[in-house]
Amino acid sequence: MMLIIALAAVVMTACDETEKKTMLNPMKFRTEVRLGMTPVKDQGHSSLCWAYAMLATIETEHIQRGDSVNLSVAYVARNFMKEQADRYYLSHGSSDITLRGTMPQLVRLIQTYGLMPYDSYHTDANMNVAARKLRSTLVAQVGRGSGLVKARLAADNVLDGSINPLPKHVYMLGMEYTPLEFAHSVCMPDEYMAFTSFTHEPMNKKVALKLTDNYNDERFVNLPVDRLMELMEKSVRSGHPVCWEGDISERGFSFADGVADVPLAKRNCSQTMRQREFDTFRTTDDHCMAIIGIARDKEDRKYFICKNSWGTENPYGGLMYMSFDYVRLKTIAVMLNNIVLPAMED
Prior knowledge:
The chain has a single domain (16-344), classed as Cysteine proteinases (Cathepsin B, Chain A, Alpha-Beta Complex). The chain is 38% helix and 17% strand. The chain contains 11 helices and 13 strands. Strands 1, 4, 5, 6, 7, 8, 9, 10, 11, 12 and 13 form an 11-stranded mixed sheet that branches. α5 runs antiparallel to α6. The longest helix has 18 residues, at 73-90.
């Protein structure tokens, strides 16, 4: 029983930052592609990797176009908690307040509630503490039966105090936007598409993956893994980042070393092996990062260069070098810009 509890704790906390000790002799890589990026951020002990990674992907996409944007995770997190506050009150407290999510959820949230630049709305607050305070306030509101309007006001007051009060407008480059106008200026509703690769769902169809954090049954195009890897590589080589979601519970994944790889026996895995790892809970939905480049090691093996959100204290300034073999085996899903899709057709 204690082992099960320990394993559950690893899964629940895998998205947040881990050990900081760095290796003495980091691996050497030869960079083939390196896209632009905003500074590496630190999500602390929150479970907001999906928001950090998808916003980082959008930021890199704009940098590649010659347009620099640095986007607010705090604004997304606040709206996500506020959305859940309604559900919590109306369900009499039978739901919960969580910071966990998936990549498509970020796109849905900004298309619903808008977005702000980092300079307009950011915080040093502990988001886990903010979520706990919100939950505590809602418990009291449910107990009193205060009504949805009062519950919403109470939620806003807690979030104002725990994070920061919200500005009503966004100002950027001398222009004034509403949050929704700003969101549409950096990410259109259908600009990104989500992909996955599992045989328990029909291939070449859009499927709602039954993931714990896929609360809204977001849909993913299910492709064979060879095709998925091809899409990812061609996207990056054509100048467009990829948002990656997958398993980081393997021994071969080390933020301290800045490298993720699999044992020799698991290299170039088959679709069957990949599915078996998922079916037996050895591939879990743990973490998200933005893929911004491609490199090779001294053996000429290919790696994706990933922008992580655990700060800069590793040999590569917070970046991760994730081998193609690791990605092939351990990917849950990816999101990429639709602009590259026509070029992917044979």
